[in-house]
């Protein structure tokens, strides 16, 4: 069996040609001249586009044995390529309309061939440019509720569920999230990254005992609550979209965890963009309209997510105990409170932790950027602290609006 090595563009071409010639894959005609280039802009992996003369193309994504954004000093398991491919296959079987299609997967080379989604836009880039996506909330709700429900104890037979929890055990990538989301932000840490002007705000946040307690509860849920197969990194860079289509990529942080985590991360990224637009859009009416679009997307995504979960529990639950009157509502209230908490943590960690977002870091005016950072920190803190007071989504939306004005 061939050994792992990190590809260059020529390796990517040779690999694809071999699949077409020797293994019967039909991505390209056998006699086509192929070209390739690497264009990954994520924190972790190589991404190549391989095209023929007619501009047909596929994507080859390969894991490196370390985190790309840091280098070889941060070794990282190649098993993340397996997790990513297998989550995509699992989610794609449940919700093909919103999951990137896996065309081929090789665990030894830690690579996956994916459909090329380059005709769509990465959501983060498009939202930085204040583009509207009227179906985004609806599509994300569908993806998260369906993949969530059909991988949960409400639906899976008990032993199948445990087998899947084992299949998707992802300790190294979970450790990254455990460190970056929960640990680093509450203390001085060399991985943290924020300007000196924020020091007093950060010190105050880090000395808030109530915040430490609330984040301890969220981390405990993350560590020991295998409710469903999460995407695990549901930020705006993991979503391709246009006016009619939404496709999810990059679930290498996938594992069985708390249902509120993915929807909370998604909403957190909408709010990071919302806050950033205060500095990006100077014209009041345009900013107000865009803010209103983001809030509609947020409310729609959460409302439909909850509505579809509740409908699936009623229609498709297989576990008799979990069908007890009132249990579904009790369960979804906990999911809501978790989601609000994880949303708040995402706002904080993207402001002061290792991995930031271009929505904020790309704001050129320093004072305007600092104002946005203070806002995301305050909003994140309030959401984490007050999540437990929200008994239903309406109370969440009111809390949010009170913090945004
Ligand atoms: N299926 C795809 N089609 C087109 N471009 C893709 C696809 N998957 C990834 N990319 C491109 O590669 C970039 C990095 O991919 P991503 O999966 O986020 O990598 P990482 O795991 O390193 O974060 C994306 O921002 C996008 O531009
Ligand atoms: C060192 S990993 C930091 C950060 O990067 C991941 O995102 P992506 O792979 O999509 O760039 C994830 O959000 C991690 O928290």
UniProtKB/TrEMBL annotation:
The keyword Nucleotide-binding applies. Signal peptide: none annotated. It catalyses: 5-(methylsulfanyl)-D-ribose + ATP = 5-(methylsulfanyl)-alpha-D-ribose 1-phosphate + ADP + H(+). Substrate binds at residues 233, 349. It holds the Pfam family APH. It comes from the Bacteria. Belongs to the methylthioribose kinase family. Residues 38-267 form the Aminoglycoside phosphotransferase domain. The gene is mtnK. Pathway: Amino-acid biosynthesis; L-methionine biosynthesis via salvage pathway; S-methyl-5-thio-alpha-D-ribose 1-phosphate from S-methyl-5'-thioadenosine (hydrolase route): step 2/2. Catalyzes the phosphorylation of methylthioribose into methylthioribose-1-phosphate. This is Methylthioribose kinase. It comes from Pseudoalteromonas porphyrae. One of its GO terms (molecular function) is ATP binding.
